[in-house]
Amino acid sequence: MKPVRHLLEVDDLTAAELAMVLDLSAEPSPSPVLEGKGMALLFEKPSARTRHSMEMAVVQLGGHPVSIAGGEVGIDERESAEDITRTLACYHAAIGARVFDHAVVERMAAVSPVPVVNMLSDQAHPLQAMADILTVQQVFGEISGCRIVYVGDPNNVSRSLAIAAGLAGAEFVIASPAGYRFESVDLNRIANSGQKAQVVEDPVRAVDGAHVVYTDVWVSMGQEAEASEKVTAFSGRYTVDQQLMSRAANDAIFLHCLPARPGLEVTEEVLYGPQSRIWQQAENRMHAARGLLTFLLGAP
Ligand code: CP
Ligand code: NVA
Predict the structure, then answer these.
(1) Using only C-alpha atoms, what is the Rg of the chain?
(2) If you placed Cys at 146, which of 170, 224, 230, 299 could pair as Cys (CB 3.0 to 4.6 Å)?
(3) Homologous superfamily of 10-125+284-298 in CATH?
(4) What is the distance in A from the centroid of ligand 2 to the CA of 172?
(5) Tens digit of each residue's pLDDT (9 = 90 or more) over 41-77
């Protein structure tokens, strides 16, 4: 029997497997690997892109998605995360979960007889990173050698992006204020994916020659208590504006996982400007999800 594979972070895949997922994402006639089957999609936090891209990917693979808000099942309140997982696995061929605490998806995966997919935790957003790499590949033809520069908070999105970039052979640079840096455990994990992340304070120097300039909100879901402190630390210097974009390569693109806070981490001019690929990136969430599910559930 094929062993159950989970996807809690991009490096649950090897570099070759990530390349395979990206190829499957572009497959025009996907295999109906979920025909007659369901996928449970559990959300402890709001979502637009992840819910819709996952639901439609499941439909495109012949399956039936069932989305559930965290409060409906009461994770660790009404029932333990483990028993919720065991229950959902009675009906579904796979389980997706968006959680506050990454440890919850780890606990789910530890007991699940079906694949568990992390749909965003405080630590990681692997589905987003796969769609991002797919977008870079579509725009530039290949990812290897691309300089991806992330300006902003070292968070779930940038951590997964750094790991995905390492696996795909891209250069990854992050510019953030002192005091907002990846922990050494994260830097080691990123380095293990194939390339060390370059960590700098100066966004202007970082963006020099970039093929991709990426940012995300400064205050992630669940960090609301830190909002004013973070906005003060990042304001001004770490806003991606046209002047900063002009330091990047002539054919550079701008990416953002969305939702955005125009006027904070990015100006409207850049977010909706000619270099922005945010809608292609958002659409790719669905293609990447389909590629990943085909990989996890398809024939060995
Ligand atoms: N980028 C992303 O995950 O968007 P949602 O939070 O809307 O799903
Ligand atoms: N870093 C953001 C990403 C949202 C898709 C958050 O976790 O809220």
Answers:
(1) 19
(2) 170
(3) Aspartate/ornithine carbamoyltransferase (3.40.50.1370)
(4) 19
(5) 999 999 999 999 999 999 999 999 999 999 999 999 9
State in words which class domain 128-281 has.
alpha beta
Q: How far apart are CA 112 and CA 87, in angstroms?
A: 10
Q: Identify the pLDDT of residue 299.
A: 77
Ligand 2 midpoint to CA 161 (Å): 13
User: If you write DSSP's letter for every residue of the chain in order, what string do you get?
Assistant: -PPP--BSSGGGS-HHHHHHHHHHHT-SS---TTTT-EEEEEESS--SHHHHHHHHHHHHTT-EEEEEEHHHHTBTTTB-HHHHHHHHHTT-SEEEEE-SSHHHHHHHHHH-SS-EEES--SS--HHHHHHHHHHHHHHHS--TT-EEEEES--SHHHHHHHHHHHHHT-EEEEE--TT----HHHHHHHHHTTSPPEEES-HHHHHTT-SEEEE--SS-TT-GGGHHHHHHHHTTTT-B-HHHHTTS-TT-EEEE-S---BTTTB-HHHHTSTTB-HHHHHHHHHHHHHHHHHHHHS--
Ligand nearest the Cα atom of residue 258 = 1
Find out whether the beta carbon of 211 lies less than 6 Å from any atom of ligand 1: no
- 87 with 58: CB under 8 angstroms? no
* Ligand showing the shortest atom-to-Cα distance for residue 217: 2
Q: Is pTM beyond 0.85 here?
A: yes
The domain spans of the chain are 10-125+284-298, 128-281
- List 209's β-bridge partners, or say none: none
